[in-house]
Design brief:
Layout (H helix, E strand, L loop, with lengths): L2 E5 L4 H12 L3 E6 L24 E5 L5 H11 L3 E4 L6 H6 L1 H22 L4 E7 L21 H20 L2 E7 L2 E2 L8 H13 L6 E3 L5 E2 L2 E2 H12 L6 E4 L5 E2 H11 L8 E3 L17 H7 L7 H24 L12
Parallel strand pairs: 1-2, 1-4, 2-3, 4-5, 5-6, 6-11, 7-10, 8-13
Antiparallel strand pairs: 9-12
Bound molecules: NADP nicotinamide-adenine-dinucleotide phosphate (NAP) and ligand G4F.
């Protein structure tokens, strides 16, 4: 039985990856942060008390800003594969918290690589690199495109990308960068634009809300489904040699187009409900991302399965169920959180 260690297991990708690996009979170890509120909602359906016989998912407290404990964990678990997904992953927030983002998203990767090197464990390492690193580079973007980062988050990811390559060359580690374009799902954090839109539109449809404030509607993204993308992460670590791969759908759509589609699928005219609030603009923006994943297609045999329309349908369906539950609670006199978030 193979063992995997997953940082960021409580996040969108971590939860899909944990499901995928457990299905493949891996023993999965996840790093979680101590929080005063529960942060394991996305993996609760996978977790069994560790006293349960044959349990395959184990959680360990830790933080990417602390190196000694990462070393102890890797030494005791001895994973065959490490999927490093943990990060301060919100681009807008990285402008508010640049130092923290540099520490966790940039140096966090170095801390794990150092833990591998110092413990001497034999393992394969996956780094969650990002299309945000391409920034201002013209589309389509591939493994050969020069990075032009446009945010503290992107700059931190560029550092992490190159330190992965350096540890591969300098110490012979099996360390691979997956350069993933945007991927979404019903488990996407509610302050990322796609989920912010599907949450609000379904709430508006049920009369729980009457306005949605967004930032730059003209930005374009190459949006895929997170469930498809975690399979690519696994495929990268099944190769004989480490390498770097772009993972993308090869289609790009604007935020306006995404918004219009979601509202029209609910028989609503987005113009009546959506307003632009400059508070959501970024000091520097990435105008267009469009990935060329032909290398991954050829070398890994990977291609996306879920279309743009199917992704939107999936997100609307889940958020409609959530909105119905909220409506039931409100009708019964309870309160529910449908306030605007900071981002
Ligand atoms: P996410 O939902 O924001 O999840 C981030 C995870 O990192 C969460 O489990 C979070 O824990 C954890 N984390 C944050 N700070 C930490 C710290 N100091 N110590 C330990 N864990 C920490 O992100 P995602 O969308 O799943 O993305 C996964 C990775 O892929 C990230 O590295 C992201 O930057 C990268 N990426 C994402 C995309 C995308 O479109 N989704 C595209 C390219 C690259 P809590 O639950 O406690 O907050
Ligand atoms: O959904 P977003 O916040 O995602 P963004 O900035 O592209 O970053 C995501 O994808 C990266 C991969 O390229 C990941 F590395 C990163 O971790 C994250 O998962 O914003 C998408 C676009 C931006 O252009 C933003 O300006 O939507 C625009 N937008 C317009 N109104 C908004 C809003 N974004 C957010 N979050 N909230 C808005 O109200």
């Amino acid at each position: 039985m193979k063992k995997a260690f997953v940082t960021g297991i409580t996040g969108q990708d971590g939860s899909y990856l944990a499901e995928f690996l457990l299905h493949k009979e891996y023993e999965v170890h996840g790093l979680i942060r101590r929080s005063s509120t529960f942060n394991t909602e996305r993996i609760d359906h996978l977790y069994h008390d560790f006293h349960t016989p044959d349990t395959k998912l184990f959680l360990h407290y830790g933080d990417l800003s602390v190196s000694g404990q990462l070393m102890d964990l890797l030494h005791s678990i001895q994973p065959d594969e490490i999927y490093h997904l943990g990060a301060q992953s919100h681009v807008r927030v990285s402008f508010d918290m640049p130092e923290y983002t540099g520490d966790v998203t940039g140096l966090g990767t170095l801390r794990i690589l150092e833990a591998i090197r110092k413990t001497g464990i034999k393992t394969k390492f996956y780094q969650a690199s990002s299309s945000e690193m391409f920034g201002a580079a013209s589309p389509p973007q591939s493994e050969n495109t020069t990075f032009q980062p446009r945010s503290p988050y992107a700059a931190a990811k560029v550092y992490a990308y190159y330190i992965v390559q350096n540890y591969r060359d300098a110490y012979g580690l099996f360390a691979t960068n997956g350069i993933l374009f945007n991927h979404e799902s019903p488990r996407r954090g509610e302050t990322f634009v796609t989920r912010k839109i599907t949450r609000a539109a379904t709430q508006i449809k049920l009369g729980l809300k009457n306005k949605l404030f967004l930032g730059n509607l003209d930005a374009k993204r190459d949006w895929g489904f997170a469930g498809d993308f975690v399979e690519a992460m696994w495929l990268m670590l099944q190769q004989d040699k480490p390498d770097d791969f772009v993972i993308a759908t090869g289609e790009t759509h604007s935020v306006r187009e995404f918004t219009e589609k979601v509202f029209s699928k609910l028989n609503l005219d987005y113009n009546k409900y959506v307003s632009v609030d400059p508070r959501y603009f970024r000091p520097t923006e990435v105008d267009i991302l469009l990935g060329d994943a032909s290398k991954a297609k050829k070398a890994l045999g990977w291609k996306p399965k879920v279309t743009f329309d199917a992704l939107i349908d999936m997100m609307i369906a889940t958020d409609m169920e959530l909105a119905k539950k909220e409506k039931t609670l409100l009708d019964a006199g309870f309160s529910c959180n449908n306030s605007e978030r900071l981002t």
